[in-house]
């Protein structure tokens, strides 16, 4: 279960950071509303990878929709456009 603490608890940041691990974030509030989350670098890296993968999938869907609308390019045409000779 995540820890939810007021931002003022950061005065004792070592105590706050003890609650952070790979499976648990610490959420900080200001005036009773969530404003920050503290997580491990490992978790931040995993989130970055997830976001990058989601962006690639989104780009692929857009490209497929465009190809369906405008027409697909054959393998030979693609090789010629990219300058790949076999």
Global Rg: 23 Å
Mean pLDDT: 91
Question: Unreliable stretches, pLDDT < 50, 5 or more residues?
Answer: none
End-to-end CA span: 57 Å
Alpha-beta content class: alpha+beta
Strand arrangement in the largest pleated sheet = 1-2-3
The outline comes out as: elongated
Largest sheet: 3 strands, mixed
Helix content: 40-55%
The count of helical stretches stands at: 3
% residues in beta strands:
15-25%
Structure overview:
With 86 residues, the chain is α+β, with helices and mostly antiparallel strands. The chain is 51% helix and 17% strand. The chain has helices spanning 13-18, 41-70, 75-82; strands at residues 3-6, 26-30, 33-38. A 3-stranded mixed β-sheet has the order 1-2-3, with no helix packed on it. The protein is elongated. It starts with a strand and ends with a helix. The relative contact order is 0.10.
